[in-house]
């Protein structure tokens, strides 16, 4: 294998994909490459991926490398953090098997992840999942005890211009299959017109479908400037101590925002906000709800999510994966059904019309003459 191309580098994959162009080589620093990141790299049609870290560490069966392999995108893995010192943006390099050359000089070696290697590593990680599960459960329970005030009225809700009372709220996170799920429920959005809440990059997901978010909520690390400018309201997620790193970015854009001090994830506080403000129903798209989801986000537990879902459960509909439950498929039998359905009323009308009755009598007489009656 030999590949030559220009590189784009970033230690945060979600920032890198915003700058990537088709045919470029992505240089990342992403331990346990997750599905969403892998799919975004595939969408960008990169030539290859160079990872400074291990794409599969063995902690849990992450499917990101498999997605790249299925798309035919080579992965040069675990090349070392100094790759970011050896390369700069738009450098031209050549990859020969597991070796990286710049100006004809070998600068790094890594591990070429083939489909066989990826499958072997995944099998190893499946065998290790029990140990990881124990740690995850312990962490979740420990933090759930500390953060129970989160759902017992112990946090101050920020004011909102939009009125939730008696309306549905759609909470969109840029998680797995968010595009497919949004497409599947597009008729619901058109008919019901729910309050649209974009959690960080979820605001851009709404814009992709021609929808303007009523509220953008999050720490503002993965939402675009365009989405922030178009949103009707902005709520910055702050740590319990009031520190809000994302507020500075909003203010630099000349925009105003409310601050929501709370533990947990931004999608958790988005659901809690909708619930406490009186939404009749909360529909979630792309949210994280399983152990694998949280491990892919780099979180060691899901205490806040566990607590929030306990509280809002009666009003929560998780639309994650709904596209797999219902997929519109075109079948030839549909055509015949439509034709038959259309012909039946036409046939009835024709039968009872005087001209058609005369024609049928003539045909009947003609048949009798032909057979000798």
Automatic annotation (TrEMBL):
GO terms for biological process: thiamine diphosphate biosynthetic process. It comes from the Bacteria. Residues 192-236 form the Thiamin pyrophosphokinase catalytic domain. GO terms for molecular function: ATP binding; kinase activity; thiamine diphosphokinase activity. Keywords: ATP-binding, Kinase, Membrane, Nucleotide-binding, Transferase, Transmembrane, Transmembrane helix. It holds the Pfam family TPK_catalytic. Coiled coil: none annotated. Residues 320-370 form the SteA-like C-terminal domain. The keyword Signal does not apply. The chain crosses the membrane at residues 332-352. NCBIfam families: division_SteA (NF040608). This is Putative membrane-anchored protein.
